[in-house]
Design a protein that fits this description.
Layout lengths: L1 E4 L2 E4 L4 E7 L8 E7 L6 E6 L6 E3 L7 E6 L4 E6 L8 E8 L8 E4 L3 E6 L1
Parallel strand pairs: 2-11
Antiparallel strand pairs: 1-3, 3-8, 4-5, 4-9, 5-6, 7-8, 9-10, 9-11
Length: about 120
């Protein structure tokens, strides 16, 4: 089971740190992706990190602002979000599976955490 936390309301330009914790499974066995779904929009890829953290990938609009990292000892993956913009408002999901940008590569999903950025 994956559980996201850390969402909330923040002003534009602010920061939030999301966490994705796994229970009942070793998250270190999986790549982890972060995805988001804004109101009325399709769910989209945000960032991904490989099993040992050697590889990361980001969507263009968050490069330089978001950082994905993991602590396998804590069975947790993080998404640090800086310089937030109103267009970052969405429900953020973490997912475990095979490293990549496609949702189809991830088998296990959390229920999401809401991020609202006020302008």
């Amino acid at each position: 089971q994956l559980v996201e936390s850390g969402g909330g309301l923040v002003q534009a330009g602010g920061s939030l740190s999301l966490s994705c914790a796994a229970s009942g499974a070793r998250l270190s066995l999986y790549a982890v992706g972060w995805f988001r779904q804004a109101p009325g929009a399709e769910r989209e890829f945000v960032a991904a990190i490989s099993t040992l953290g050697a590889s990361t990938s980001y969507m263009d609009s968050v490069k330089g602002r978001f950082t994905v990292s993991r602590d396998n000892a804590k069975n947790t993956v993080y998404l640090q979000m800086n310089s937030l913009k109103a267009e970052d408002t969405a429900v953020y999901y973490c997912a475990a599976g095979t490293y990549g940008t496609s949702q189809m590569m991830y088998n296990y999903w959390g229920r999401g955490t809401h991020v609202t950025v006020s302008s």
